Amino acid sequence: MRDAPDPNILGQLQENPLTPSMISTGVPPLAENTASPDESALVAEFIAFLKDASTKREPSGPVHRFNQGRHSGCVRAEFTVLDHLPAELRVGLFATPGTYQAWIRFANASSRSDREKDVRGMSIQISAVPGQNLTPGSTTQDFVLNSHPVMVVANPGDFLQLLKAMERGGFHRILYLLSHPRTARRGLAARGHPTSHLDIPYWSTTPYRFGERRAVKYAVKPCSSITTAAAIPLTDHYLRDVLRAHLERSEACFDFMVQFQTDDRTMPIEDATVEWKEHESPFRAVARIRIPMQNIEEPGRMRRCEDVAFNPWNSLLEHEPLGGLNRARREIYRAMAEFRHQREAD
Ligand code: HEM
Is the minimum distance from the CB of 46 to ligand 1 under 6 angstroms? Predict the structure, then answer.
């Protein structure tokens, strides 16, 4: 049985999502989660920018996600918490072995064509998860992951500056990249042409609480019995084609893993550009994702893939998102999903 969470903690989180939520245990937590006072204003500015830029991109009719707007497909999956986990891994969702139904969306971070090198996304939404959820009314546990272990920027302020420069394009984009060479290098390193969404690993890049006193990052690593050969030539939609072909022929598999923060200096909470090195703290499997054979183009599937909304704050209390990027995502993802749905209804 899971321990009942302290109701005061939940109250604090729901009333003020940007308050750093140190869970009081009498023992100082290893995870450092330090919110700055101007985060609320930054989040408001971020949302205004995203809505304005989305409207300029698509002035009427339905609007796509500002980030990860072009999906290769969505799949039904089973998320099975492993049996016989050691006690330190039996926390929150992973406390009890069992199988949940899940929905996974695979997408490109920014490109409209698969010919372009890009970061790829894997977003997992696990249904009917019992326990105290950080989003009132939600019963899902969401994991929103990228195909590169670190973010190109450390914090939401830097991210907004980057997105503004990219959106303005031309001279502004070039000036930004020249004046931020490390961000530019990270961006180049993150982009690639995978053989398939089903063949590559994904990382949370940002940290999450794991029970009261520990923090983890997540990774998802492929374990399918078949892989896809490199597509030659690359087409605009080869990633959808190989996803469809793989799941027509065979099921797919991923291991879901956690990596403990073991040193708050080399494994920071507030800087998502720092990779937590596997030689310092290895990833450990806690669940297996099985994607059964299926038709990813069945009627209604594409519509559902557009409509679904993920949010890292659709989460059990025990897995609270940590760090500035995650704190900002709570309200930004909520507002942008609402904006998309509103435009769809208009
Ligand atoms: C301040 C930080 C961030 C901002 C402002 C931001 C912004 C956004 C926005 C606006 C969306 C579309 C949401 C929607 O319309 O429903 C999105 C989706 C996504 N983001 Fe982020 N993001 C941030 C951090 C991250 C990080 C750290 C990751 C790394 C894993 C990430 C990965 C993704 C993925 C995979 C999706 C697609 C979700 C889906 O399939 O619907 N984002 N992001």
Answer: yes
